[in-house]
Amino acid sequence: MESFTRVSSVAAVLAMPNVDTDRIVPAKFLHNPRSAGYGQFLFHDLRRDAQGNERPDFVLNQAPYRNARILIADANFGCGSSREGAVWALYGFGIRTVIASSFGDIFFENSFKNGLLPVALPEAGLLRLRAAVATDPLANLEVDLEQQTVSAPGGEVFRFEVDAFKRTSLLLGLDDIGVTLQHLGEIESFERHRKQHTPWL
Amino acid sequence: MSPPPPRTLFQKIWQRHVVSQDPSGRALLYVDRHLLHDGSFHAFEAIRAAGRIVRRPDLCYATPDHYVPTVAAMRAAPGEKHRTKIDTLIRNTGQHGIVHFGVDDPRQGIVHVVGPEQGITLPGALLVCGDSHTSTHGAMGALAFGIGATEVAHVLATQTLWQKLPRQMRVRVDGRLPAGVSAKDLSLALIARIGTAGASGHAIEYAGEGIRTLPMESRLTLCNMSIEAGARCGIVAPDDITLSYLHGRPYAPQGALWDRAVADWRTLHSDEEAPFDTEWTLDAATIEPMVTWGTSPQYAAPIGGFVPDPAKADSSTRRTSMEESLAYMGLLPGTPMNSIAIDRVFIGSCTNSRLDDLRAAAQVLRGRRVRVPSFVSPGSGLIRQAAEAEGLHRVFLDAGVEWREAGCSMCVGMNGDLGDPGQRVASTSNRNFQGRQGDQVRTHLLSPAMAAAAAVTGTLTDFRKLP
Question: What's the mean pLDDT in B372-388?
Fold first, then answer.
């Protein structure tokens, strides 16, 4: 997994609540292997019309935001299905961090395992951040995981909370399986205990 | 020594599965049951690429469901895309020595139907699967939740998972559900009330008389929908209903081991003073058959109600979201729910494809004819057999309803079962998201009896009022 330290970029704004993972990547694309590049499928039905042409009014089809690495969303971003393709699509498109007031639980977990930082800001903070971006939509934002801050164009700095372990894993780009297998002794000892106490499992 | 602090059912099962605890508060949990399906190929691929092995293939169970055709002729000769997925699961399970209920096996079906049906899902067990509707299995008193592909690979390689204890929510249902009101209605009513993110970060325990009196299959429906309220996990304490459902199932313990397991399962309930972070109470008597009108499961109304007016929303964000929903759905505020004409009907999915669901639909369809294209996809091959043994398939066929094979089918359409653009579908599935059942397809979620009534009249209809 690629590590994440800080990202500086224009921010694309998608101010819709409850953006579900079916919208982030429709199920019809999930048969593709990850190596196919999920970025092309991102927000497919929002980005393209029935003929497959880009909709010019969709933010990620507009010039500066095609290269946006920061997405500012709304509440409950990534609710619904557990498909990790939703994270792969954002990442494949170039998005490295999504800022929202809340996230779907499974999407949130999946993000950290793929180098994408989900930043949860309180609703009031998110609204102020979006207002700052609206006054200077071409300015760069900076999201810094080490400092746990989002720096808005007008100069306001928003601090965000992140689980200590998740933060470290993302900063170092750690592979979870490798870390877990260091606990192999404990796992084996648990298995012996389990066999004795709950043999029906 | 002071007595141990009171704990919730969820916390009790959680603590039994802690292999290791790290200073940040995360626990390494042991996974008792890992369910796999034909969409799990990403994780097998990740394992292969990393050169890792499946640590406990004996705790893994697989069946194809997402990509499986439900039309018999197509099942015999699926298209390239679908066949590849089905064959890949055969190869992966064969290579790693994992139990696999294949397309030709009557035990094949939707993974969340098969687990409980086979007795693979057990009270007190920790069960995961790479699918968000894994919350279904909590109905058996298991701690069950959906995970993404990277976590599936992690469980394959280690049989464990790092998790943080979620907040605890209790949903208490006072009184019994009235006749004609189902677990699906209860669930939609709950989600309409607390919102689709209402239980985010929580595990839900369903409790109270309305739950204790609910048959097993209804509990499975209710827990299935927990994720639509934002909760990864829903759970019901095991009781006599759970035990009688489970007894004698192929993978459930037998004989002396059964007795020993039951003695343990009897201890699985929340303590009297267990601390819940959030509590909701619903009065069962007030719940009516529900139908969704928008593109989020929280946008639901009683069948006797009306499409709401976004202008009356309590926030501008909600108003915009409602307006977008109604534009997609092609509905106007104030429209009576029972006047909305539909184009087709789907009865199936991990939410509503069990025998009781098919019986409820058949009861409405008996002696009637449908007006719109409709089909039933049972949750497993065994349910299909059981339904045929009691003649339900005759009722469906006589009514003009197609009787298909088991799979996820039109809930997510990955097998090709999709609506045509602009079509309005009455569906017993779990998600009415934009594009979920096909490009520009409009989904109305409802119960099996309500879906059957919609099929008969061609309009969303209160089945209790059918002539």
Answer: 98
When CB atoms are compared, the residue of A50, A114, A194 closest to B150 is: A114
Among A18, A84, A105, whose Cβ lies nearest the Cβ of B321? A18
Give CATH superfamily name and number for B167-238+271-286: Aconitase, Domain 2 (3.40.1060.10)
- Partners of B424 in the β-ladder: B442
Q: What's the ipTM?
A: 0.96
Assess if CATH 3.30.499.10 describes domain B290-465: yes
Give the mutation candidate from B36, B318, B433 for the A interface (greatest A CB count, under 10 A).
B433
Superfamily of domain A6-173: Aconitase, domain 4 (3.20.19.10)
The pLDDT assigned to B23 comes to: 83
Mean pLDDT of chain B: 97
Domains B9-165 and B290-465 share a fold: yes
Provide DSSP, A124-184: HHHHHHHHHHHHSTTS-EEEETTTTEEE-TTS-EEE----HHHHHHHHHT--HHHHHHTTH
What CA–CA distance (Å, rounded) separates B361 from B359?
5
Chain A residues within an 8 Å CB radius of B147: 82, 106, 109
Q: Write out pLDDT tens, residues A93-119.
A: 999 999 999 999 999 999 999 999 999
Minimum distance, in Å, between the CA of residue A16 and any CA atom of chain B: 7
- Is B162 in Cβ contact with A84 (below 8 Å)? no
At residue A198, φ and ψ (nearest 5 deg) are: -135, 65
Distance from CA of B90 to the nearest CA of A (A): 16
* Domain over B9-165 is classified CATH 3.30.499.10: yes
